[in-house]
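Throughout our pipeline, every protein is held as a single compact record rather than as scattered files. The remainder of this section carries one protein's record, kept here as part of the documentation.

===
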Amino acid sequence: MIRFTPRLPEENVNVTPVSPLRELFVLISGLIAVAVGIYFLLGFAVDLIVPHISPGLEHALARHITERFAGSEQTDDRSGALQSLADRLKNGCVDLPYDLTVFVADDARVNAVALPGGNIVVFSGLLEKMSSENEMAFVLLHEMGHFVHRDHLRGMGRALVLVALSAFFLGPDNPVGGMLVQGLHLSEMKFSREQETHADRFALRALNCSYGHIAGATEFFKKMGQEETPAGAIGQFYLSHPESRKRIAEMEAYGQANDFPARGVLRPLPDGIR
């Protein structure tokens, strides 16, 4: 009597000579490598296209974004006061291809953003931190620096690339896609920190041009630094903006290297801003 012992065939199209886990790892690694390659190619394409986007197209892009910032009577009054300051700064020392429009958003966040079409949104939480016109002028000039360098369009373009890649490869709600986007997003953080440094340097040059000195430029960051917890060596990679203490040191070094006077008369905040 012959006893039958079942076993897998040594060679078959359905039998793999390597571990299925290893094959899965190779597959996922290849997929990530392709996604990263496409991401950097599209990011490079964004950098090539952005300088050729006209102010008219920027206004069209911004139309629906800025509608949400239509404010109350109070925020409109503050927007008007900031608008006057921004216009004075721009007409004196900044060369931009379009007019600026400043909105105040009733929001506790301590921040300001540059949006396409020359639109600047200042959150009311940031206004509460301001103590002089020079301080406020630096913030507005920093946002104008993003317009001059076209950072606002590059940021939007790269964000769209990230979302599109994730949805194309893995579907809109896939958790692996979220991990991939998070990994690529970290590489963007360094890019973002460099943009912030360049915008700070632009603002220092324009502030010196407007007031004859750069006093007040670092006051805001000194206040913010008192509220920050040091990010540490690893935490630095997750920051979209440089830490305040590093930002202050870099700005002071840049001011000294360019012989910008660090001391000068600080003007009071214009009426209506706060």
